Amino acid sequence: MIRAMRLGTDHPPLAIGIDALPPQPGGGVWCDLPRAVLRGTASRNGQQPASGQTPRPSLPAPLVAWLQGLHPLTRFQLAERRRRHLALAHSHYVHVRLPLPTPPAATDGSRALDVVLGPNFALTVHDGRCPPLERVWAELIAGSRGADTVDFALYQALRRVLARAYRPLQRTVVRAADRVVEQLTERHRQHLLPVIVRLRRQASRARALLVPAADALGLLAAGAADAAGISPAHRPFYADLERQAQELLSAVQDVQSTLTEAVEAYTSVQSTEMNRVMQLFTVAAVVFMPPTLIASIYGMNFQIPEYRWSWGYAWALGWMAASAAALAWWFRRQDWL
């Protein structure tokens, strides 16, 4: 759904029709639209779709004129979503892209939120629904959330995106890593390595989302603030957004380091357990070696004096038991058992 909002110091946020868009980006207008309306050839060039293709609805003429005020590269980048890392400062606005976590049931691939922020105007383009953005938009229109400038309204939207999209992802990864570390101390951990590998893959995906987001927010908070039209009074808010994104990224990177150490610890524990098993087998073989030797001697096919002795059988068994017990006592004293 294509929608627009006008913000100003003399009136609360108002939803306006597309026909009320100014000829050029500006006028305290925030325009929000799904990426699907920008991805058709017919929508951009006025050409007819090829036979067999589903025709896409054309954009309203006022919106087309409004978009013409942006650089052609920006219009092209808004229509395609292949690039995850996008943070560019143009002469009179800034274009950044925040890749969003994909819901488990989604089948349409990656999702992203594009933000074009300039002096007294903003444009947001997203794939499918963006619930955090929709919530802030509804609260602004209802008057339950206050904002008199576009840059402050957009700050509130980005703050909610961080809280509702990125922070749960970071929290999930951190909690899963803590559980893995706790399971390393448990006795039954035979299937822990696949869990660690799966969690490392999840942490890598989280980092791949947070790195572009942190860079994008850093561009808004740093030298591009003038091009983005962010007022000096609101720049600390964007700096706080960048700080929050960096904290989330740092936490995920710490998880990656922890998982690397967990893999090493898991391998070390498995190796130690294997060494103990081999040590036990070795000690058992050495303990039973003297009884085996005694049994071999008395089992030879020769005339042995003990054969004629009534206590010969008990003598041989006693020697076997005594030699095994002596070796076991010595190994125990050496703390090998």
Structure notes:
By secondary structure, this protein is of the alpha+beta class. It has two domains: 3-269, no CATH class; 288-333. The chain is built from ten helices and seven strands. It has helices spanning 41-45, 61-67, 72-79, 131-142, 150-183, 192-221, 225-228, 235-287, 289-298, 312-333; strands spanning 3-8, 11-16, 29-34, 86-89, 94-100, 111-118, 121-126. It has a seven-stranded mixed beta sheet with strand order 2-1-3-7-6-5-4. Helix 5 (150-183) runs parallel beside helix 8. The N and C termini lie far apart (73 Å).
Largest sheet: 7 strands, mixed
* Binned strand content: 5-15%
Low-pLDDT runs: 41-56
Number of strands: 7
Structurally, how many domains make up the residues?
2
Measured between the Cα atoms of the first and last residue, the distance is 73 Å
What structural category do the secondary elements indicate?
alpha+beta
Please tell me what the overall shape is.
rod-shaped
What is the average per-residue confidence, as pLDDT, rounded to a whole number? 82
Q: Give me the strand/helix succession.
A: EEEHHHEEEEHHHHHHH
Task: Describe the strand arrangement of the main beta sheet, using strand numbers.
Answer: 2-1-3-7-6-5-4
> Helicity, in percent?
40-55%
Please give the count of helices. Answer: 10
> What value does the Rg take, in angstroms?
35 Å
